[in-house]
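hey can u check if this looks right to u? its 313 residues, i copy pasted from the old doc so theres a chance i mangled smth
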Amino acid sequence: MSIDKKFIDQFINVTSKAALASSYKVGKKDKIAADKAAVDSMRNELNKINMNGRIVIGEGELDQAPMLFIGEELGTGNGPDLDIAVDPLEGTNFAANNLPGALSVIAVAERSNLFNAPETYMDKIAILSSEKGIVDLDNSVTKNIKNLADYKNTQPDKLTACILDRPRHKKHIDELKTLNVKLKLISDGDVSGALLVTDEKYDVDIFLGIGGGPEGVLAASALDAYGCFFQGKFLFDTKEDKLRAKKMGIENFEKKYDLNEIVSGDSIFCATGITSGDLVQGIDIQKDTFTSETLVTHKSSRIRTTVKSKYKI
């Protein structure tokens, strides 16, 4: 089974309208307002689509968020059963401070084919190869880098690693520096960080480190279409985390998840730029029209492209 291609334009519309709504809050130093604008728009547009949509990754659980909560049902009720993962504003600080790389992101799969991820951290690793055994979360950073260099027939100092610039990654970063690996340190936005491995033009060979679990699932949808290797392991630090995970059906808290366990079957992924970054250009408003740029993947039709769209405001 695959998701009908006709939905691609509809989901591009969803992320484009959410990106526009958020763009009006760019640089206003209010990340909550920027996020809410994207959330409200995304919810409104999703409800227009002929589908039985269900949020499996959203803005939190019902008691934490008024919109796009996990388990919320969206769409007209006429159409296929779809699971939806959303990050209406990825990079809230980027938008609030008018920095590059803010995105509006959605991933859609057939019912029960998208991992129902709790709001917790995930240790993850990604490269542009579907081969197993090159890198693994159980390996040391040094072993992963040396294996990847051997696979690419090059030296570690010719590789670039993308990692969130966080105190928790000091050991990883020190190890990468010892190996003389080039670093791309990002302050936020680990959906886009993971996607930088998808094309050699971004000059990123490996993405690694601890970031958001929901963001890991979103990134996996696109990485799947590119034939990448991705592995993720959820980190449950508290009793509350473990209880919520159990309610979502997670029994083994030490399990490493491969890509096909996170996204099975067909999926559509859309990431529209709010502010211009590595992946896509931001929203461009001209009088009564706006132009958006969206990275789109659709696994079954092998679509992996950037789409420019023009809309009336």
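The chain has two domains: 6-113+266-312, 121-262.
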